[in-house]
Amino acid sequence: KTFHDVLIVGGGAAGTTVASLLKRRQPGLDIAVIEPSKDHWYQPAWTLVGAGAFDVEKTRRPTQSFIPRGVKWIQRRAIGFAPTENRVDLDDGSSVSYGSLVVALGIQLDWHKIEGLEATLGKNGVSSNYRADTAPYTWKCIREFQGGRALFTQPAMPIKCAGAPQKILYMAADRFKTRGLNADMSFFTPGAAIFGVPFYAKALDKVVASYGITPKFGHNLVAVDGLRRRATFDVTIDGKTTREDSGFDFLHVVPPQSAPEVLKGSPLADAAGWVSVDKQTLRHTQFSNVFGLGDCTNTPNSKTAAAVRAQAPVVAANLLSAREGSELQARYDGYASCPLTTSVGRIMLAEFAYDGVVTPSFPIDPRVPRRAYWWLKKSYLPSLYWQMLKGSLGPDWHAARTFPEAVPAIHP
Ligand code: FAD
């Protein structure tokens, strides 16, 4: 069968959740999901894996177990989009056509953009929590660190989970402090602030200072020499770029990221390659039967699974409305959450929406790192995630906000 009422491209956090929500609302709907991977990974816990606080095997489950009953899983890779013909082309030469399309391809990790990185990643003290196979090596490096220079890098935005590069920084600093090690720690970012939301950035500046970490703004990692243990940075200050070299004993790298290759230059993409959608309805700006969500869109929210949780009901509701020819009622407010591990055992729960509006779920100061949020991240959020994929969180969690409901917010 080569036609489906709804075709979902990408069966990660976003695609799977939308498939489940649609199937629950309209059991008769003919849905197919294009997803090449047999494994589904709970990526948010890789940060804890790198700090020795989570078992990597518990972050993996079979993709099959999340494909809702009655939904067809096409285990292939999409290689092209022809939205004027309602068609997606696959890597085996076949194609699938659709009534409605949901694009949920995630974000691409561009390891190759840092010279020498791929050859040394996972050895020579060079690691990254952005891969399931290297996150355990981060913990090995931290465990075996005997003092010296530890460097942590963040690439240019946008990336998925903008807080992840500094989460491992603080947990490593905490581990080194507990062991009484003499660690010279630096955090390198091309940006000019530690975090994109000023309300939280001010509180995080204090965390950085409390550990004696040196923030290196305007620094972009461009090359790694694992054998010589040297990292090279482009340093841009006042529009002038120079090169800087630093030795290391441990280097944690977060790779540059961009839109998936299959989207770049496709009719669905904006100039930068992201799926071009309305930031509230999540409908494509040009093709009215196409929706997009998750890390692959051009919406200016923080790319997180927390954002996916808020976006999926909006896409499900609006897609069904569009199919009925009625007005789109559901709106995404830009909600995202970033549980910032400020130590092993405490978390600052950053929650915010579009334009840096702070939207805490609990009526207490969200800038205060708390033990309860550590428990939330380690025990509660993983199970919340697996349930989200099945659309089984209950009506409150899966309810889409409808226009013009106000966003509960406090302003910094
Ligand atoms: P994904 O879940 O990545 O899924 C994309 C899917 O598309 C994949 O299954 C992939 O196989 C598939 N795909 C790719 N190319 C093709 C193709 N050509 N054809 C078909 N399918 C394709 N989020 C939080 O909320 N909180 C956190 O604390 C947090 N921490 C994180 C820490 C780390 C280290 C990382 C890596 C991520 C973290 N995230 C966090 C981010 C979160 O994991 C992502 O934002 C979320 O998974 C996005 O969902 P998605 O469906 O858009 O992308």
Automatic annotation (TrEMBL):
CC cofactor: FAD
InterPro entries: FAD/NAD-bd_sf (IPR036188), FAD/NAD-binding_dom (IPR023753), Sulphide_quinone_reductase (IPR015904)
GO process annotations (BP): sulfide oxidation, using sulfide:quinone oxidoreductase
Signal peptide: none
Keyword Ribosomal protein: no
Domain FAD/NAD(P)-binding: 4-120
Top-level taxon: Bacteria
A GO molecular function held by the record: FAD binding
The UniProt record lists the keyword Flavoprotein: yes
Pfam families: Pyr_redox_2
UniProt keyword terms in alphabetical order: FAD, Flavoprotein, Oxidoreductase, Quinone, Transit peptide
Name this polypeptide is given: Sulfide:quinone oxidoreductase
Upper taxonomic lineage: Bacteria, Pseudomonadati, Pseudomonadota, Gammaproteobacteria, Nevskiales
